[in-house]
Amino acid sequence: MKKKGIIGIISGLIILGIILSVSLSSDSQSMNFEPRLYGQISTEMGSSIVGNLDAPVTIIEFGDYQCHQCYNWFHNTKPKIFQDYVDSGKVNFIFVDMAFLGRHSSIASQASYCAEDQNQYWQYHNTLYNLQESKIDGGWANSERLKAFAFSLGLDMTLFEDCLDSGKYQKRVTFNTSEGRQNGVSGTPTFFIISENQQEKIVGAQPFSVFKMVLDEMI
């Protein structure tokens, strides 16, 4: 009986080890991510944090690289916010994918994380919004163009192409898009401005004055 009991325990440990191994390998994209919650929003699968990590206020943008209003905000509002709030250490910023507008939206987001593997996430992010074209799924963000953008940034193309073609970050982008939906995001850009005791939601490419009013109240 004792022998059978020992064998049963050993078998159980082996099975548990196999289960844990499969669980870890099946979602390797999230293995190295520490939880990063702001309010109820999980951001660890999004971008790195830009700005002072200890800033009292965080701006989370849910965006799609094919979104025209995201393009407008990127060019017309974001620079002033960064100049007045992020660069001064008062606010930090996180981008989270809401890849839902077209079939090329997800692969564009995946490409940004392939660039992140080579420490070029923000350079690639900026390239996508600088070179965005007006037609959704018009070809400007297809696989070949995304690879051309990577080449223009001097990335190792073997590494980048292997990453993109394998769909390495497909689950990561899907997770982020699901996180947006769970937090009531139905259009892009949508922003959550969060401090220790307050959270505000801003929808659309609102002008700097709208963000300034909210930020000044929180800081």
Describe the structure.
There is one protein chain. The chain is of the alpha+beta class and 219 residues long. The chain folds into two domains: 32 residues; 183 residues, Glutaredoxin, CATH 3.40.30. 51% of the residues lie in helices and 13% in strands. The protein contains nine helices and six strands; from the N terminus they run αβββααβαααααββα. The chain has a four-stranded mixed sheet with strand order 4-3-5-6. A two-stranded antiparallel sheet has the order 1-2. The longest helix is centred in the first third of the chain and has 25 residues. The radius of gyration is 21 Å and the shape is globular. The N terminus is likely disordered.
Indicate the topology.
Blueprint: H1 2-26, E1 37-38, E2 41-42, E3 57-63, H2 68-76, H3 78-86, E4 91-97, H4 103-116, H5 121-130, H6 143-152, H7 157-166, H8 170-182, E5 190-194, E6 199-203, H9 208-218
Parallel strand pairs: 3-4
Antiparallel strand pairs: 1-2, 3-5, 5-6
Helix pairs in contact: 3-9, 4-5, 4-6, 4-7, 4-8, 6-7
Task: Give structural attributes.
219 residues, Glutaredoxin, 2 domains, four-stranded mixed beta sheet, two-stranded antiparallel ribbon, 9 helices, 13% strand
